[in-house]
Amino acid sequence: MLTTRFTEALGIEHPIVQGGMMWVGRAELAAAVSEAGGLGMITALTQPTPADLVKEIARARTLTDKPFGVNLTILPSINPPPYDEYRRAIVDSGVTIVETAGSNPEPHMELFREHGVRVIHKCTSVRHALKAEAVGVTAVSIDGFECAGHPGEDDVPGLILIPAAADQLTIPFIASGGFADGRGLAAALALGADGINMGSRFMCTVESPIAEAVKERIVAASELDTNLIFRTLRNTARVAKNAISDEVVQILNAGGQFEDVRPLVAGTRGRKVFEEGDLDAGIWTVGQVQGLIHDIPPAGEVVRRIVAQAEEILRRRLTLFGDPAPVG
């Protein structure tokens, strides 16, 4: 077992987290990851209403009795969802682990603290991680530039970001962006992280509730098959390379503004990709790590083989230095 500060703080067996993903983080996937000893996440805003979230949490509990969490991503919006009601649904359902992302977690901390909820805050820089630590989160998930979705505007890859975070944080943290196998977990631990968070890898599993065509595209794709959109708007997002994201990049690079691409990037179009398998229906997120994903196994198998591979790598590396001297 790879016991770390993160596994001890969250009460889980393995230092592997299935991060929250819009339209993907449903009960079957979260429960499968948790049942294998990792930490699965239900994505709150995938559920149309807070009442639906309560039902999804209850459904996950019929599939596993092990800890799982709920992702709550807070983003600026013209018509924001009822975040307060989603928070209340989480605590009233007895969930004790929450992944926050998108904005400063401080406005949510009082309610979560009152109900014994441990918060993992997802961010893309050391400075934001330190702010999250200061407001009392239990752990941080820090995204390198390789990640799917929003990598921030600093363009710092994990090989630099992880040890930089390790040098300054005192709370446990996990590394996100670019992880798909035991080599990545072993590397993250060596760089100072307490575990890993994976999105794209878990998208490409049996329990992932997205169209098979999307999973097959991930398997076939290389690390070169993503686009960075919204760069000129300082709101960078890494998405799959397809006809729509190519067009978005072209329009914005030519001086276009968000209104010029709004119809192309509508969330309803991305949802259609996942639900119907039409790969050019809209933009959809995936990381460069897709170049390391070659199959569509059960989520539990992913967890188990990553841990086994990481343990084997770490033990083999230790033998390079001979037998350790006896302690005491």
Keywords:
328 residues; alpha/beta; TIM Barrel; 2 domains; 8-stranded parallel beta sheet; two-stranded antiparallel ribbon; 14 helices; 13% strand
Please describe what this structure looks like.
The protein is α/β, with parallel strands linked by helices and 328 residues long. The chain has two domains: 5-198 and 297-321, Alpha-Beta Barrel (TIM Barrel); 212-276, no CATH class. Helices cover 41% and strands 13% of the residues. The chain is built from 14 helices and ten strands. The strands form two sheets. The protein has an eight-stranded parallel sheet with strand order 1-8-7-6-5-4-3-2. A two-stranded antiparallel sheet has the order 9-10. β3, α4 and β4 (97-101) form a beta-alpha-beta unit. The mean pLDDT is 95.
Overall geometry = globular
Q: What count of structural domains?
A: 2
Fold-level CATH name of the largest domain: TIM Barrel
Please, how many helices? Answer: 14
Query: What is the strand tally?
Result: 10
The fourth-level CATH homologous superfamily of the largest domain is Aldolase class I
Distance between the termini: 23 Å
Layout: helices, strands, pairs:
Blueprint: H1 5-10, E1 16-18, H2 27-35, E2 40-43, H3 50-61, E3 68-73, H4 83-92, E4 97-101, H5 106-114, E5 118-123, H6 126-134, E6 139-143, H7 158-168, E7 173-176, H8 182-190, E8 196-198, H9 200-203, H10 212-220, E9 226-229, E10 237-240, H11 243-253, H12 258-261, H13 267-276, H14 299-318
Parallel strand pairs: 1-8, 2-3, 3-4, 4-5, 5-6, 6-7, 7-8
Antiparallel strand pairs: 9-10
Helix pairs in contact: 2-3, 3-4, 8-14
